[in-house]
Queue: 2 jobs
Job 1
Amino acid sequence: MSENFHIARVGGAGGVADLVFIHGLTGDMVTTWTSPGSDDPAGDYWPKWICEEVPNLNVYTLNYPTSLFGKWSQKEMTLYDRGKATLDYLASYRFGKRPIGFVTHSLGGLLAKQIVRTGFEASDEAWRSIANSCRLVIFLATPHTGASLASVFTFAFPRISSTHIQLLRSDSSELDQLNAAYRRLASELKIKTAPFYETHKTKNLGILIDRVSADPGVGGAELVAVGADHIGICKPPDRATPPYTSIRRHVFDFVEDAAKRQKQARPPSHIPVQSHELAAFVYDKEVANEIYVVLPFDGETIFSAPIRFVIETSSPKSVKNVYLHLELADSLYLHQLTRSVDKIGAGREINVFTDKGRNEHIARVLYKLPSIGPQVRFVLWDRIFAKDPTLIPIDTPVTLKGGEQMVVSSKILTALPVALTLDGEDALPWSGEIKIHFRNGNIEEFTAVKRAENRLIKELMRSGVQKVRPTEATFIGFKKFSKHPVEGGGLKILDADPDSIMGVNVRITPRGLEPHGKVGPL
């Protein structure tokens, strides 16, 4: 569960419509929409299946602070306040410029309804645009009654006060008002509404959202049963199983309608400005967004690895006020160092702003370019730094009943997320996240690297501390390093030579690493 707003692009580029996935109370932007055990070639994250099968569509997934629902259950925050916070976040990324649809799970459906209602009634033009652009809402086991909502809260917050749960059951006036407003707006704005409900019991709580609870009361909305529990209803095992088949059909119709509207509203000579897709590349080959950097750590040396931002546009006109926003751990950025990128920026009229954000351990870097000319490719270099692997050994002293002392050894694996957002005037922003892991070793001896990682995976599987789910990743490293000049000589930094990069694409499974392609001259 996340305590921050974050929008990430799943796929699509320059589509005629936007589709946003909104998770429920106990989920997040990734695990909610991941189907464990799926052997689909595109992976088990099924929003990517939608990207593959429905062309001309931009697909996003939204993280929001799930604590907002906990506060609401205890009457500390209203649905209206929650909707305003989400609307303001979406508006900051300039949604509402094209038709928008929502795929929601559980209480994420209430959030979608509140977005529509609050936006429609707002005086803020950007908020109204989001509501007026809504054309599709898919509800996967969304509670539309006070009693069913209380059941979901009981499942999500088993320790929540029974008084608060009873209040949800007896005082559903706010929920009733939201339902009435959505029914009216769904008709007025012509929002296609597709509700689904579960038919299997969830643990020992029974069926949380039955047919009656899942009915939003919207005319023309056909309730569809799904053979799954409250958690599994949003995790279709394959592309031939409901509710995926129905969702795909609704999304197809949504995009088709958006394309017709665009054709009617826009003269043929108008060419939109589009932001470029954000993705990770090594040697101009796109790689997975899980990057494992293999470096010869010695506990003292700080290694500097190059990163390159490539911004390009196919627009026939200049794109003004281009921003590239980077947010990452301050230990990775070391913004107190003098940076060569500042000198490059001055020479090319790039302004670089760095601060520690809301958290002193997070670096927020903003590259501002006054404009990028038509049909050009612009390259900006920078570096990230690392001193240790993202593998933390922990020794915990334990006293047995007989007084004997022992030490329990364990490991914690961490990943350092790098969030990227690219925006420009008259262009919808692209957002993405790359997770960086560091491992100790030599990429030229990949067999040894693989052997060490397989041992680690076996340890994790035996301990059960962390699950190992199948995922695509890229292991990279460097053959050559040079000394980085540092004023005062207090730090020992080695710069990796970008021309010496090597890599291997792998699939990480509970059985170990499965290499399936080389990157660079390895």
Job 2
Amino acid sequence: MKKEKRRRPTSNGKKVNMICLSVIAALYTLITVLNLAQTERPTISENENRELATMPRFSFAALFDGSYFRGLSEFVSDTFWDRDNLVDASKKLDMLRGFSGKVVMALDPKADEPDGNDDDINRKLETLFDLPATTVPFTETEPATVYVEPTDPTVWFPKFSFDKVSIMDGSSQTITFSIEEKGIEGGEMPEPVWEKPDGKIASITIDGDKITILGINVGLAELKLTVGDNSAAVSIEVYAPEIREPDDPGAGDEIDIMNKGVFIYNGRGYTKGGITKKRAENYAKTIEYYAALFPEVRVTALVGPTSSVTITDPEVRSQLSNDQVADLDMLASLFTGRAGFVNIGHTIFEHRDEYIYFKNDHHWTQLGAYYAYVDLIRYLGEEPVMLEDMIYHKITDKFQGSYFRYTQNQFFKKIYDTLDTWRPDVELTMTVKKNGKTTKYDTCILNQKRYFCFIGGDAAYTVINVPENPQDKSVLIIKDSYADALTPFLTAHYGNIFVVDPRYVSINLLNKFGDYGLTDILFINNITCANQAKWANYYLGMVGK
């Protein structure tokens, strides 16, 4: 049997191969040079409307646990030469496939959380509600006062309502003081002598028998009052909660909503929304557990529907979304009265023809948030501030939000929104802890062409102090990003507004706020997050469960 001779490549074939290899090598070399030659790497992607990864800081610990190379990979990927245009080209190729039908899916929905998560939450809540009310660990300690044997017929003893105050950076707390007279009446009281902090850690304002302590920077300070030979003191701790990394990169509520699917209908984008009976029960029980832990505080929840609530086309509604108004009615019925629930479903639907949701972003506009605020503040027994009495500012009419960022669908590249903002006419300070940095502002609306113009976006925590409002009227907001556009309206009603995001902060709310004297606790969520078992876990984790 003859061996078949191997065919040798021709001279022309070799040349073609060499040319191809040379072109590929040249392209790789060119791209490498272009990447290395970038003197100023981009920090923000305009297309994706997000901050890009930064060069990780080298350490041997980061090297050995792998985080350094993960960070380096993200940095190179995010700052790759001409990245936005390359992504655009890829998405334009996708668009060549074409679309048909009344509705176009821009991002397919993903599977829901496993049902086991709900069972875990159910078991946990049943156990918690079996606990007696005496499990609340807070008892008000009697402030210590130094007593000295009387040397005069009449002796005065100063006394504070607390001997220790722990407040978050940027917030205030109001306490009281008194001076008790003992001995033979008729003596003249010596002039009280105050020893106040120097203003670096905390500032003190005294009005009658009320003392307002404002936290300025993290640290320890002391306030002391001496009358004659006797004195009393308050130790002051100004703290910043610990920041934590999210459990997974998809911790943001925008990811939760996007997982439900994004669709294009009638020339704009929409997100699906709804809540199941089982998860509605878990959500209501979680909120009412807070009411049990904070019996002296008014606890209220507000859940916002997603944009598809505004669609009236029966065919589209049946295909792509639950009846969110009916779902919110069902959720409202599950609250027993221990905590309050503001059902805004009907209000939002009534305003469906107005500009209450963005076309290119999963959030409501601030006008939509305003209608929610009106229902909320009336539920709390107060009157809302009218829009015409607020300060209006249009930040941009070229806003492109999360739909384009997450789908990169070329349809959304042509869709722009207007970013309208309103805020009450009050002076305030705002302290924002985000990405490991603390920043202080004198406004709650930032001049940023993105949704995080509202209170700085999804920060670990935000503290707003409004000096002209009663400093003993405070609200704690536990939230997802739907609260961001609503929070500025509350500056007309509270002296202190604490906003915490359970995904990014480690804090035991019971330890820090159990005896603070909160007026309200508000839970503000969109319906998709309320329909996630992990959010109930977030909330229970913030009280140590």
